[in-house]
Write a structure and sequence with these properties.
The chain is α/β, with parallel strands linked by helices. The chain has a single domain (63-280), classed as 3-Layer(aba) Sandwich (Rossmann fold), CATH 3.40.50. The protein has helices at 9-13, 21-36, 91-94, 109-121, 136-146, 172-178, 180-188, 200-216, 229-240, 277-280, and strands spanning 80-86, 129-132, 154-155, 222-227, 257-262, 268-275. It has a 6-stranded mixed beta sheet. Helix 4 packs across helix 5 and helix 6 (172-178) packs across helix 7. The radius of gyration is 20 Å and the shape is globular. The N and C termini lie close together (6 Å). The chain binds 2-acetamido-2-deoxy-beta-D-glucopyranose (NAG). 2-acetamido-2-deoxy-beta-D-glucopyranose binds at residues 8, 251, 253, 256, 274, 276. Belongs to the phosphoglycerate mutase family. One of its GO terms (molecular function) is 2-carboxy-D-arabinitol-1-phosphatase activity.
């Protein structure tokens, strides 16, 4: 997957608190400079990309340091790549029902097909381990993707979806009616959303940090992680140094993939966000 970077424009446009303006400008300047220094002609935007890409591109700085704060607070054995994947369409996704940590919804037929597409798209990539949420819709997705691979799937609780207490099981339209104020805060001010005396989004940030430690301190260099949308948002935000108030600053579709690279200090660099080409074509990511 190296070299494929699909960044969400909202992410690019909102300056990250940990970057100085000179850090932000450097890659842009470089990109402009390099694109004028090559005489290769590019295919027109409407052309299909050739199968083997033979023009030069620059980027992919893997020797980064202090891109973000360390998620391990200790040196790790090697640099690591982590591919995060959201489960396929579930019965409750299809009904627009709030799922949270409940385990009553399962993959739909379309969701199974999406998981199969993910399997195909990732077939050339070697993963040392697959970690998954034990909740059915993610577990089923992971089982499909991992089928035929040798190592056992590893289920970890820190990959479970956010707890949404009495909102779980309700359709969004009904939750909005019945729990008007709570629902509004969940949507508009997630960091201050309180339920049952807990702050579910803040709790999720704690789970995400624990989860990163668990992943990054595991043996291996290349991990596949199959999980749910909210915890995936929390994993992405914590890796980028964003707080729970930024919960809704990114989104990942069913079957969507995010990729992070970590240096040996446990600092993250985002490589890809919400990769979904494989949902609409037979795209296979390179090893
Ligand atoms: C994620 O990808 C899907 C499919 O390409 C797209 O519809 C959706 O808007 C994307 N999400 C974001 C937040 O960019």
């Amino acid at each position: 997957m190296a070299g494929i970077v699909f960044l969400n424009t909202t992410l690019l446009c909102s300056p990250l608190p940990c970057l100085t303006s000179s850090q932000l400008h450097l890659p842009l300047t470089r990109r402009i400079h390099c694109s004028t220094s090559t005489s290769t002609s590019y295919p027109a935007a409407t052309d299909k990309l050739p199968n083997s890409i033979d023009f030069s591109v620059t980027g992919g700085a893997y020797d980064f340091t202090k891109a973000t704060t360390s998620l391990t607070n200790e040196l790790i054995t090697s640099s690591k790549k982590v591919t995060l994947l959201r489960h396929g369409l579930s019965t409750w996704n299809a009904e627009s029902r709030i799922q949270g940590s409940s385990d009553l919804s399962v993959l739909t037929e379309a969701g199974v097909e999406q998981a199969e597409r993910c399997k195909k798209a990732l077939e050339n990539i070697h993963f040392d381990q697959c970690l998954a949420s034990p909740i059915s819709r993610a577990k089923q997705t992971a089982e499909i993707i991992w089928q035929g691979r040798e190592k056992p799937l590893v289920y970890i609780d820190s990959l479970k979806e956010i707890s949404l207490y009495h909102l779980e099981g309700l359709k969004n339209v009904d939750a909005k009616q019945i729990y008007k104020e709570e629902y509004r805060i969940w949507r508009e001010d997630p960091a201050n959303f309180v339920m049952n005396g807990r702050y579910p989004v803040q709790d999720l940030w704690i789970a995400a940090r624990d989860c990163w430690k668990e992943i990054l301190l595991s043996p291996g260099e290349n991990f596949l992680v199959v999980t749910h949308k909210s915890i995936l948002r929390a994993l992405t935000c914590t890796a980028l140094g964003l707080g729970p108030e930024r919960f809704r600053s990114l989104d990942v579709n069913n079957g969507g993939i995010c990729v992070f690279n970590f240096n040996t200090r446990g600092e993250a660099m985002l490589e890809a966000l919400n990769l979904t080409a494989h949902m609409y074509s037979d795209h296979v990511y390179p090893a």
